[in-house]
What does this fold into?
Amino acid sequence: MASHLTLLAGPDALRLIRERGLRGDDVDVVPGASGGPKWLVLAGLDRALFAGLFQNRSRPLHLIGSSIGSWRLACMAQKDPVLALRRFEAAYIDQRYPPKPTPTQVSETCERILDALLGEDGEAEILDHPWARLHVVTALCRGAVGMEGPGAQLFGLVLCALGNLVSRRTLGLHMERVIFHTAGDTSPFTGLNDLPSTHLPLTRENLRLALLASGSIPLLFSGVRIPGAPAGVFRDGGVVDYHLDLDFGPGTGLVLYPHFYPYVVPGWFDKSLRWRRARPQNFRRALLIAPSPELVARLPGGRIPDRVDFERMKDAERMRAWNQVVSESERMGDALHELMATGRLAEHVRPL
It folds into this structure.
């Protein structure tokens, strides 16, 4: 069973896990990465973690995600996270589009998925949750990146990519990280200074729009304007924080990171820059849990799903494949439960 998991830990996390295993009360932060359909390989692990690990918790647990990661964590911040995740899975897998859909059509479909994810009471449950503190990462775009015309937007993205080759900090010339959250003064992320950053409260008026903005991929989705927030167009938070290479704040607790890869890419423009990976100091207290190569080999086509599946497969074929991925993902949750129940988790953790 353990062969279905890749377990990697920073030095502080490794020391804590060797002392007392993985305990829900020892976790301070759960990040959720961008990645579109890749999240489906984590579905079973997500359900296993939030069905049991954090039961009877009272102190705050900070959930921070960009793009699809923020949507997963929005499920986990609801009263019944497993039911919310099931609603999200079904609606996400069922999405379908005409050939060459417009950004408006894509955004409308994703609004319907978001409606299913939140259900009737999801917004209130997130805002009033007794201990889950949701942080939604978005990108407030300036200049050409903030324009809706595809030519201007593409030009702006090219400028971002060229500057990013030199330094991630150049992204601050084109966009600002805006984090909407329910943590009030307790957020551990208010000290972020690697990029221009603004922190705003999540409210009934902006929660849906913030989540929609966080998943609004440039060129594919329409930009989002959020009343009460700074003026401008908000887009996918993954553009600035793709896999969340962040300072996770003060504290000695774990950063528990379910992730579809055994490595972390800082920003959207870093995907092809193999020399740019996460800063080790940000992950000293992180436990990263990813699918093993053996589990990935069991997936349709031997790979984790991605957005290209919409072009590569017909809808019926894609839905069958994605449902199979979700089914296989249960092995990750089962394996984690077994390692925790037998007290053998530390034996299978390798240094990150």
The two ends are 21 Å apart (CA to CA). The first helix runs from residue 11 to 20. The mean pLDDT is 95.
